[in-house]
Predict the structure.
Amino acid sequence: MFSEKLRAKHCGLEMRTPIAIPPAAMEGPAAQSVETYIDKLMSFVDAGASKVSIQYTCPENIVNYPKGKEPILRWGSVDDSSLIAKNFRYLFIIADEYAIMGRKDTGKRIIDGLKKRVPPGVIVQADVVGKGSDPESWSSIAKEFEDAGADCIELDTSCPFFAFHEEPRWAAFIKEGFPNQQIADSEEALPPVIEAVAKKLTVPFGWKMTPETGWPRFLYLAKETTDKGANWVTCTNNPLMFTPIDIYNDGKPDEKLFPGGTANTMAGAVGYGRAIGRKTVAAIRHWVPKAGIQAVIGITKPEYAVDYLMLGADIIELSSGLWFYGKDFITKTAKFIERFMDDYGYDSIDELRGRALEHTEWDATKYNYRYGELVAKVDEEMCTGCRRCIGTVCFAMSMDDGKAKVSEVLCGGCGLCTQTCPVGAVILVERSRPKELDIARGIPAIK
C-alpha cells in the first residue's frame, strides 16, 4: 500500500511512513472501552499512520483522581479572517483536567491489544504524565509502560494538566493564585525528570515541548535534555489562547464560535501556531543535530508535512488536520508526500529531510538583502487603484491617474507591496542599473 520511498527511521525505530498520530483524548464512554479505543487507533493505522499512541496517562496517585468519570471536552473555533487571510478559522479545546487523563490499567491493556494488531513498521507509543515535578513518579510510570510493551514513551511535560512545577522563586505569585509553571518550560524541573527516566528505560523516549517557551530558551532545554538522555523532542504542544468573546453581548462567550460555553476561559489552540513549530524544528535541527524531532503543530495541509520534513523533522504527527478533516487526511498526506518525492526526484525520506537548512542563513548580519538590485514594478492593467500600497510605511509608492506608481529612486526593493497587494499587481524585478545610497548626503541615488 505504501511506497518504500516513504520508509522512515525515528530514534532507531523503523516506520513504513513518516506519519504518526499524537496522543489524544476521546470523549465519552467509548473512550474508556479498550476495544473501541484500539479500533479507532487501528483505523488511523489503516489510513497510513505508522506510530499511534494511547492518550495522556497519569500515575493515578493524584489526590481526588475521579475513578470512572467520563472524559469531558468542549470544542470551539476562532474566526481570524481578514482582508488578507480570508476564511481563516482554527479550533480550540478545553477539558476537565482530571477526567481527561487516561487510566493506567486501561492504557496498558490498549498497548497490549495494539501490539497484537499493528503490522510491521508501525510503532506503539505510550504517553505518560508524572506527579508534579517528581522525577521518580515520571520514571516509574514510564518504566511500567515499557514493561507493558510500548515501543517508545513520550513524557507529556507540556499539557496543562498535572505537569506543573512550583518553582520557589514564584511561590509568592502562586500563593496569590497565579498558575504554576509547566515542567516543559522549567530549566529547574525538566532536566532531573529526563535524567531519571533515561536511567530506567531501554526503549527510546522523548518529551513534548510547550510553545510558551520563547527564543532561544527552547534551544537550551532541547540541548540539555538531549545530553541527559532524551531521544527526541516533540515540537510542539498547542499554544494557549483565550476563548472568543461576543463584543456585542457584554463580552460574554461567543455562542456561535463557542457553543455551550458557560464562561470565557483559557484553551488550547488547534490548527494554529505553525510558525512556532517551524521555528523550533529548524532551530533544534541546526543547533542540536543529535536530537530526534517530531513535528506536530498546525499541519492542516499535506504540503505542511513536507515543509516540516524539509526543515529537519524526523517524522510528523497529524493532529490539527485529523481533527479538521478526519482519517482521510492521513492517507491524503501520505500520498501527497509520495507524489511530491516522485515529482521532484527525492528517493527517500532521509534525502528529503533537512533540505531547507542547506539554504538557510542563521546570522542576519550575513543575509544578502540584495540592496540596490531589485525594484518594485506595477502591472497597470492589473492594478485596481485601491491605494493599499501607498497607505503603508512605503515612501516609494504614489498614485498617478488612478494607478499605483513606483519611484525607482526611493524604492529599496523590500517587497512589502508585493505581499500586500490584493490582486498581485506588483512584483520585484531586477534593476536596469544598480541603486546605491549616498550616506553622506542622506539621499538615495541612481548611478
